[in-house]
């Protein structure tokens, strides 16, 4: 074996031993999150959606009724609401953000589900206080806040090197048929090695995509360095005081600005100069649940303040829009999501077989040395 190839194998070994547990945790939680909504609805039937009836749309009075119901329960005038538009009947999911200086992904929030008519609350849980949201927090930052996010992001970057070094270390110099063979009658240590090899080769391409997109989601600073689109604009309403317009009026303005958009989220501001923000899916957007187009509306006058349409954002915006659906498997239908679940399980198989092979080789080497000295 040449010295460069030996060094690559050693790099692969020590990266695997160092990052294996992290990748197993992220893989298992990622697999569960592929079916996040479905699993959560099974665990909480009152908040279940209904696909047999349509949900409220652009002109429905239900949105204003839901906001009024939520504000009656949590009357903080500075609190903000984000209503999810699923397109289905049944419970209406929403997020309530109490007044806070922090408005990033780690901001405190309460997950709320309204009845189909918006007139009552059927479920309310703090984010991170129920199973699926807890798994999401583990997956995003290991329950360790900003430090955990950096560990996940840069650990993922190192994992790209782990995957690439594994492919280079395996790359056959002779027969491809031999390199892809699984010798079932070989010694146990060889069968474990073959299982590790074939699992890695078979899943390497998909793992590279999932890990690379995960790095970009965890490290927005890396996205910025790669010249992906900057953060969305942050327009403000013309005044900090005044009577807030109804949600229905804000939706009418957003619909006029982007007539062919499909509603995804309605962000309702609290008191102050923050605007309404309507999140839309335009034709060609790859993510159904979290699309990449927005309209900002003055909360007092109803004037459109800014529009961010994915179709006018250029190549960078398009590439950025594909990151999340490629990572969570939502780019396709059920078959792709099942593949995404299986890909998430591959790190556990690779870590277990790699660790077992390494330990057996160490044990065999120790035994050989002990025989030489006796």
From TrEMBL:
Entry's transmembrane regions: 12-39, 151-171, 198-219, 334-356
Protein species of origin: Sphingomonas guangdongensis
Species classification: Bacteria, Pseudomonadati, Pseudomonadota, Alphaproteobacteria, Sphingomonadales
UniProt KW keywords: Membrane, Transmembrane, Transmembrane helix
InterPro entries the record matches: PepSY-ass_TM
UniProt KW Transmembrane keyword: yes
Protein name stated in the entry: Uncharacterized iron-regulated membrane protein
Domain of life: Bacteria
């Amino acid at each position: 074996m040449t010295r460069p190839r030996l060094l690559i194998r050693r790099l692969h070994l020590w990266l695997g031993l160092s990052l294996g547990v992290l990748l197993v945790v992220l893989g298992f939680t990622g697999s569960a999150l592929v079916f996040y909504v479905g699993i959560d609805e099974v665990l909480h039937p009152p908040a279940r959606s209904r696909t047999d009836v349509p949900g409220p749309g652009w002109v429905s009075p239900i949105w204003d009724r839901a906001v009024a119901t939520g504000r009656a329960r949590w009357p903080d005038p500075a609190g903000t609401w984000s209503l999810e538009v699923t397109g289905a009947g049944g419970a209406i999911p929403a997020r309530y953000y109490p007044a806070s200086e922090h408005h990033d992904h780690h901001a405190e929030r309460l997950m709320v589900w309204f009845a189909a008519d918006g007139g009552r609350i059927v479920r309310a849980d703090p984010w991170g206080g129920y199973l699926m949201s807890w798994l999401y927090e583990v997956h995003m930052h290991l329950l360790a806040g900003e430090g955990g996010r950096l560990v996940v992001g840069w650990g993922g970057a190192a994992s790209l090197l782990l995957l690439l070094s594994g492919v280079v270390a395996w790359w056959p110099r002779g027969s491809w048929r031999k390199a892809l063979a699984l010798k079932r009658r070989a010694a146990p240590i060889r069968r474990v090695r073959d299982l590790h090899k074939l699992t890695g080769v078979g899943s390497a391409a998909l793992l590279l995509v999932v890990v690379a997109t995960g790095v970009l989601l965890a490290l927005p600073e890396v996205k910025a360095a790669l010249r992906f689109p900057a953060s969305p604009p942050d327009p403000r309403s013309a005044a900090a005081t005044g009577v807030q317009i109804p949600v229905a009026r804000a939706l009418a303005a957003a619909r006029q600005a982007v007539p062919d958009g499909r509603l995804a989220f309605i962000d309702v501001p609290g008191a102050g100069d923050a605007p309404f923000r309507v999140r839309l899916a335009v034709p060609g957007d790859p993510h159904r649940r979290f699309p990449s187009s927005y309209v900002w509306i003055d909360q007092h006058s109803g004037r459109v303040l800014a529009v961010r349409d994915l179709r006018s954002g250029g190549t960078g915006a398009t590439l950025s829009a594909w990151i999340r659906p490629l990572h969570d498997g939502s780019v396709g239908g059920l078959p792709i999501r099942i593949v995404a679940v299986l890909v998430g399980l591959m790190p556990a198989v690779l870590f277990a077989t790699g660790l077992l092979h390494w330990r057996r080789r160490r044990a065999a080497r120790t035994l050989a040395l002990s025989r030489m000295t006796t």
